[in-house]
Amino acid sequence: MKPILLQGHERSITQIKYNREGDLLFTVAKDPIVNVWYSVNGERLGTYMGHTGAVWCVDADWDTKHVLTGSADNSCRLWDCETGKQLALLKTNSAVRTCGFDFGGNIIMFSTDKQMGYQCFVSFFDLRDPSQIDNNEPYMKIPCNDSKITSAVWGPLGECIIAGHESGELNQYSAKSGEVLVNVKEHSRQINDIQLSRDMTMFVTASKDNTAKLFDSTTLEHQKTFRTERPVNSAALSPNYDHVVLGGGQEAMDVTTTSTRIGKFEARFFHLAFEEEFGRVKGHFGPINSVAFHPDGKRGRCQKRRHRRAQTAPTVALPQTPMTVGTGSPAATRSPGRGERDGVSPC
To answer: In this structure, what DSSP letter does residue 201 have?
Structure first.
């Protein structure tokens, strides 16, 4: 199956995410642009314009009516998916690193960075209460004093969130009381990514300590370890098979001094149970920043970083083990066409 090259960003990719049905792919990067693509053929359907800094995270709700984004411009924004209209602007004191909708799409959470004298917080808003949005007052705010959150996802049934920290710790926070339910530390360095399995019973973490690890979503019990020779930026679980895909590579600052072969920029496939690597996909010229499996398990995408010229990472589709890889390479620039406006710009 031929890979599809997506061109729509000017800087390196930070996150890619499918909606629940898998017909749409959302991409964000270290530029202010939020893109939405038709996943079947790679057609860009539109852009969500409004951020003024790098966009670190993106999520879509259960029925793909709303899109949530978090940015280094110290804001979290809620969008109408179809029209591109900005529905809410939530100001923060520091950059928004992670964000997400709960299972029902009524509650959103996002975490902010520990910077500029401000500590890291996890904020929860109920979208059914307009006063919380209008007054920018979350119904719950959890301080994280020791180490900032670098990745976070909602746990099963929306009862908790699972957060990975810069120190390598994993915490499970109650979505009702804010207390820490479970705390474990299996990684020795920063956790870059957390992704759940399709049934939400397990999740995989990617870390700078050159490993990805599998955990139980309820107890945070460590199950498996997948080892590499380079930092792992992202990892995803196949919805159909006992497969895990890892993306990463050499640190971005060292890319220009290293050959492609030495940099270890391949997407790597491991068996979930046996922890053995059984395949690699080559072709990236820089570290892979984000990977994702298509919800039906038949396609996938990966987006990477390329250090020489602006280009988005190719979408890799494999028979039986579909996945999407998002690399750190910037996407190619595109001049706005006639009739494009703020909100959704048709391609």
So the answer is: S
Give the whole-angstrom CA distance, residue 249 versus residue 305: 10
Residue 126, token pair as written in the block = 């109920």
pLDDT in tens, 223-282: 999 999 999 999 999 999 999 999 998 766 555 555 545 547 889 999 999 999 999 988
Segments forming the whole domain that contains residue 100: 7-145
What is the total count of domains within the chain? Answer: 1
Q: Is 243 a member of any domain? A: no
- Residue-wise DSSP of 291-343: EEE-TTSS-EEEEE--SSS--PPEEP--SSS--EEEEESPPPP-PPPTT--SS
Distance from C-alpha of 40 to C-alpha of 54, rounded to nearest angstrom: 27
Strands 55-60, 86-91: pairing kind: unpaired
pTM of structure: 0.85
Query: Which residue numbers in the chain have pLDDT < 70?
Result: 1, 251-263, 299-347
Question: Domain for residue 184, yes or no?
Answer: no
Percent of the chain surpassing pLDDT 90: 72
What CATH number is associated with residue 93? Answer: 2.130.10.10
Q: Is residue 38 part of a domain?
A: yes
Q: 254 — phi, psi (to 5°)?
A: -105, 0
| DSSP-based three-state secondary structure for 210 | coil
Cα(143)–Cα(199) distance, integer angstroms:
29
